[in-house]
Write a structure and sequence with these properties.
The protein is mostly helical and about 170 residues long. It has one domain. Helix content is about 85%, strand content about 0%. The chain contains six helices and no strands. The radius of gyration is 21 Å and the shape is elongated.
Length: about 170
């Protein structure tokens, strides 16, 4: 009876591991979607309101659609208290996106460093470039999830079953 319980626990832990990996993939997909929407919002702000960098961050931080990007509120609050925008953006976004692929995190950091550094047309082009990058990563990861998501879950269950049989 004890062995059977042990085997069941191993199978369940394999299934949970597979499900956790799938959830992490979903979270990454959702964050890439939000980053794309954030870039869309920045483009709109730049094009129609042409505010400064602090006004952009204030608008992003108060945008209900982007509320899951909680680092924006932290960046706004720290910038408002007199901290240098680029330093705050770097620190807060690095911590917030630590689970994302390094290329995505690098682009988020560069987006913050590039905001407010050139004329309006240049900023629009730069932000649009980041938007295209985040959107392509989103599409790529979504396709990867569709093809491998269920496979990872099943692999977790089968790995747990294999280990349980081997130990039994």
């Amino acid at each position: 009876m004890m062995r059977l319980s042990f085997c069941a626990a191993i199978i369940v832990s394999g299934a949970v591991t597979g499900a956790a990996i799938c959830e992490m993939m979903k979270k990454r997909i959702h964050m890439l979607r939000l980053l794309t929407e954030m870039c869309d919002e920045i483009l709109l702000l730049l094009e129609f309101r042409a505010p400064d960098i602090y006004e952009i961050v204030r608008c992003l931080a108060s945008n209900e659609k982007l509320s899951r990007l909680s680092f924006l509120k932290e960046v706004y609050e720290d910038s408002e208290s007199g901290a240098v925008f680029k330093d705050v953006w770097k620190i807060r976004s690095q911590a917030f996106f630590s689970y994302m692929p390094s290329e995505v995190t690098k682009n988020v950091l560069e987006l913050g460093a590039d905001l407010g550094t050139c004329a309006l047309d240049g900023q629009l082009a730069v932000v649009n470039g980041y938007r295209k990058f985040f959107e392509s990563e989103y599409v790529k990861l979504e396709k990867q999830y569709e093809s491998k998501g269920k496979l990872v879950q099943a692999f977790g269950i089968f790995a747990g079953a294999f280990i349980a049989i081997a130990l039994y």
